[in-house]
Every structure is written in C-alpha cells, then in structure tokens.
C-alpha cells in the first residue's frame, strides 16, 4: 500500500494521494472471553468521511484499533483497497483521543517529521513535509516549541499534522476533539472539513457527539451498545456545506440519531440493572447534551 | 511631535519569575545554613556531655581534618573512594540500562531474570565482601565490583519499570507512523524511560556510598571507608568523625551535581529534579 503512493511522487498535490476504500467484512473482536464487537460489515468509499457514532464502551474505538492494525479481529476481514490490514501501517494514520500520543521530548516540528524520518526520507523532505502539514493545521509558527507548551487544541492539531505528514490514504480518528473545551472543539470541527478537503483522504471518525457527526460526516454509522456491539443503522448526511447541526434540514437526521442512541443508552442502562424508568427519562433528553454525556458515561468497559 | 515612553512597559514576566526564584533560592540556602548551625550546636553539646573518647567535638574534628589534609590522607581517601564509586556506578549504569530496557521490553527475558533480581536485591553487598576478595583479590576490582553490584539492580529495576510505564498510545502512534521495533525502542521507549533511569541512577549513587565503607573493609590502603576502619585500630575517634562527615558531604555533592547536570541536559525528556 505504501508503494502505491510512492510510485507517483510527481503528481499534483505533492503526492497525488486519493483516499483508499475500506472494507469491513463480518468483523468480530474478542478479548479473551469478552466479546467486544460482533459481525460488523461496512463499506467505506475512497475519500469518504464516515462517523462511527455510539455511546462510549460500545466498541467503536475497538473497531478503529482493528482498522489501524493494533488489534487483530477474531473473525472477519479488514481490507484497504483490497489488501488486508496485517498490522500498523503508515498508510493508515491514527489520531488518538489523548495528546499523550505525542512525543513530549521532540519539538512540534520533529513530532510531525517523525513518520517521514522513520521511513527514511531525506532531511530536506522531512522538514518540507513538516512545514507543509504544520501550515495546513495553522501551526507553522510553533515548529520549535515542545508539545507541553501548547494548549489542548493545538496539541490535537499537531497530532493531525503528524499523521498527515505521512500522507496516509486513510485517517482514523478516535474522538480527537473529545477532551477539548466546547469552543476549541467547534473551531477544530470547522477546521476538520477544510483539512479533509485539502488532503482528500478517507476518514473514519469515532465520536459520541451527534452534532459532531452531523457536521463532519458523509455517512454516520450508529453502533449498538456493547458488549458484542454491531452496527444499528447507517445514515447518509446529505447536507450542503458549511453545515450547521442546528439547521432545520438537519433536524430529521438529528432526531433519528437521537432516537437510535437513546435506545442504546436505555438498553445499556437495563443491562447494568439500572431503573428502566430513569432510562426512559434519559431517552427523552438524549441529544440535548446531557443525554449524550450520560450515554457516554454509561460504558463501564474500557472503550478500546 | 510625539515622544514614546518605552519605560512604561511592565517588567517582563520571565524577569519577575526569575527574581522570585532567586528569592526562594536564597531562603532555602538560609534555612540550610540555620539547620547546619543547629546540628553543629547539638553535636557540640553531645561532645561536651560524653567527652572526646566517645564523641569528637566539632573543633577536634576540624583540626583532625586539617591534620589529615596536610599529610594528604584526606585528599587521597576522597580521590580513591570517588574513583571506585564512579567506576562501579558507571558500570552499573552501562549494564543496568540496556538490561532494564531488555527486561521491560521482552516478557520472556523478564520472566527468566526476575527471580535472580528479586533474590539478589535482598543480599547486601557486605555479604559478598569475603567472596569478592577471595575471587578477585585485594586490588581495586573487588571494590569496584561491589559498587557495581549495589548499583546495577536498582538501575535495572527502575529502567524496566519505566519501560513498562511507557504509554500505549505513544507506542501505537510510533508503530502506525511507520517505526519498526528497533526504531520504537530507540525513538520512543528509551526517551520515555529517561526520568526513570535518572531516578535509578540517583538511588544507585546513594547505594554506592552506603557500600563503599564495606567495600573498603578488607585490605584497602586508601579510601574514606579504609580511613574509618583503620582509625579504629589507632583509637582515633576524631578521624572516624572526619571520615563519616566527608562521606556525607561527598555524597551530597555527587547527588547535587548529578541532579543539576541531569535536569539541564535531559530537561526535554521530562527530568525535573
């Protein structure tokens, strides 16, 4: 897969990169006796932006880890442009929820150049790539600083630039804005659309935030509550940009997503032996923020 | 005509912070001085109470130190002990760090070596003095080996603990950015482990000072430990006091130097001491 981009280094956008198509076929993931994900199939088109939406603990991050090659499925297959995922691959970039994934002892520039350096690019190429992608996320002026000196939002930008500097064909994002404050998150979501258009890669984006999914995705795949999570429904998002999650055109989709998530939250509550009546109340609130938050907090299993 | 007054700009933050740090530093130094003075006072009282045959007074100790310094014994002892400590400790680091990385990284190695580490770390170096002399003779190597012994396990334990504490997301990030196993070890595991290694090195330095006296118990001509042991034969309590105090001061200085150098050179790895 790596070869595919390197074979064409001269074309337009530096790398002539297009997104790769991703196929998830009957994937089943277990950790010992814990059944995390059951029989998931998804076809993601090249260049598509797919959101995996569901309450925390439902296994969406687990599915993402499998796509990134960190976790091997128990059954089923994962393929990128027809080649199976066999392990971590620079073509499949991963943006982690926590900026702990950054290398604190390297400068921002060195962090972004890490991928190209590991892959034996020349020094000139390394700094050109770091410069280009730091520019794309608006952090060119921070190249010489250390991650510890940046704010949470800036650190996530560095993570995004670091992944993009490898010119991957698929970018996997695990609630990348989940730990940010509301204002920063909003800015990052707006930036995300621009960055995505500039790079054209396929994006699989995990979130438990309904509005975020509506803002960003071409399609939203809702997952059922874990364990043994599966895909509950897939919704196309046919909204013109720039999007506004509170716009009237989005209302119907929003209602549908809320209802789906609400059902899953109630199911999770019942599974945990909590009062189903309380669950009903919650269902009504789901989507207004409180509900999604609660849904997010329900998962007791580690969401990875 | 307009005149711009530059002086109106407030003092830069950095400068203010620096002067605050300087004030705090002075305060710490002053308290140290007070603490030392009180200690010397108590020591003086004890010396007066028990007499010179049991407790050498501060002034007796000072003049004994002067005597030992003039004939060169003190300097030679310091140099000899420092040399043994630095060589043994340095070897302990040179072996302990790679071993710790290896043990932390590879489960089989860990399982194979763990029983020995858990066994030997409870046996004090003094238990090996006889064996060291029998096996290695009365030269320098027996002493250096004992310092090495006391350093290496603590370095291994700290390094491997550091390796096992490296965050999973950093390792995954490196792997998915295209780093192979060796690149991950060098580029992620080692840098993440540096603060643990430094802690291990400091503890090992402390152990080395605890061990040097035992290491010089047999057949050492010079050294602070040797000075303390031979003073007993001459009945010179004041020399014993000189040896003990020099050892303490030397250890303090070594640790200070280590801390300052490590926190300057390795700051970017998160070493804050």
Describe the structure in your own words.
The complex is a heterodimer of chains A (304) and B (273). Chain A is an alpha/beta fold. In chain A, the strands form 2 sheets. In chain A, strands 6-7-8-3-9-10 form a 6-stranded mixed β-sheet, sandwiched between helices. Chain A has a 4-stranded antiparallel β-sheet with strand order 2-1-4-5, covered by helices on one side. In chain A, helix 3 crosses helix 4, helix 8 packs antiparallel against helix 9 and helix 8 packs parallel to helix 10. Chain B folds into 2 domains: 39 residues; 213 residues, Orthogonal Bundle (MetI-like fold), CATH 1.10.3720. Chain B is mostly helical and 273 residues long. The interface between A and B is medium-sized, with 26 and 21 residues. Chain A: GO terms for molecular function: ATP binding; ATP hydrolysis activity. Chain A: It comes from Streptomyces spongiae. Chain A: InterPro entries: AAA+_ATPase, ABC_transporter-like_ATP-bd, ABC_transporter-like_CS, ABC_transporter_ATP-bind, P-loop_NTPase.
């Amino acid at each position: 897969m790596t070869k595919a981009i390197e074979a064409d280094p001269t074309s337009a956008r530096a790398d002539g990169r297009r997104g790769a198509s991703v196929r998830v076929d009957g994937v089943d993931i277990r950790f010992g006796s814990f059944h995390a994900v059951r029989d998931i199939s998804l076809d993601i088109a090249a260049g598509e932006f797919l959101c995996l939406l569901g309450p925390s603990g439902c296994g969406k991050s687990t599915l993402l880890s499998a796509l990134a090659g960190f976790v091997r499925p128990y059954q089923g297959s994962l393929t990128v442009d027809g080649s199976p995922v066999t392990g971590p691959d620079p073509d499949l970039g991963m943006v982690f929820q926590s900026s702990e994934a950054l290398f604190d002892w390297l400068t921002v520039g060195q962090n972004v150049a890490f991928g190209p350096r590991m892959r034996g690019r020349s020094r000139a190429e390394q700094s050109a790539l770091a410069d280009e992608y730091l520019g794309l996320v608006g952090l060119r002026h921070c190249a010489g600083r250390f991650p510890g000196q940046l704010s949470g939002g800036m650190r996530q930008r560095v993570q995004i630039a670091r992944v993009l500097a490898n010119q991957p064909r698929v970018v996997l994002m695990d609630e990348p804005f989940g730990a940010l404050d509301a204002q920063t998150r909003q800015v990052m979501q707006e930036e995300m659309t621009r960055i995505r258009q500039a790079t054209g890669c396929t994006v699989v984006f995990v979130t438990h935030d309904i509005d975020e999914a509506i803002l960003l995705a071409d399609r939203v795949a809702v997952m059922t509550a874990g364990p043994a999570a599966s895909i509950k429904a897939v919704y196309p998002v046919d909204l013109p940009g720039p999007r506004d999650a509170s716009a009237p055109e989005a209302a119907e989709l929003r209602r549908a997503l809320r209802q789906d998530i609400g059902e899953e939250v109630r199911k999770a509550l019942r599974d945990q032996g909590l009062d189903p009546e309380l669950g009903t109340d919650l269902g009504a609130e789901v989507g207004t923020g409180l509900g999604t938050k609660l849904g997010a907090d329900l998962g007791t299993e580690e969401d990875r | 005509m307009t005149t711009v007054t530059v002086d109106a700009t407030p003092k830069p933050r950095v400068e203010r912070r620096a002067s605050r740090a300087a004030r705090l530093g002075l305060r710490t130094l002053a308290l140290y001085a007070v603490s030392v003075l009180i200690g010397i006072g108590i020591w003086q009282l004890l010396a007066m109470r028990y007499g010179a045959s049991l407790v050498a007074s501060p002034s007796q100790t000072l003049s004994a130190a002067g005597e030992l310094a003039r004939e060169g014994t003190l300097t030679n002892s310091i140099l000899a002990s420092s040399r043994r400590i630095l060589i043994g400790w340095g070897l302990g680091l040179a072996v302990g760090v790679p071993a710790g990385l290896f043990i932390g990284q590879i489960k089989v190695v860990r399982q194979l070596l763990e029983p020995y580490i858990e066994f030997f770390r409870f046996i004090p170096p003094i238990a090996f003095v006889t064996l060291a002399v029998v096996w290695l003779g009365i030269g320098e190597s027996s002493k250096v080996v004992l310092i090495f012994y006391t350093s290496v396990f603590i370095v291994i334990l700290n390094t491997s603990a550091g390796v096992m504490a490296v965050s999973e997301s950093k390792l995954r990030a490196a792997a998915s950015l295209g780093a192979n196993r060796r690149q991950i070890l060098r580029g992620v595991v080692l840098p993440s482990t540096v603060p643990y290694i430094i802690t291990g090195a400091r503890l090992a330095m402390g152990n080395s000072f605890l061990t040097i006296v035992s290491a010089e118990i047999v057949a050492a001509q010079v050294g602070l430990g040797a000075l303390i042991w031979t003073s007993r034969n001459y009945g010179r309590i004041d020399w014993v006091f000189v040896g003990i105090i020099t050892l303490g001061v030397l250890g303090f200085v070594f640790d200070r130097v280590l801390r300052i150098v490590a926190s300057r050179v390795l700051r970017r790895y998160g070493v804050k001491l």
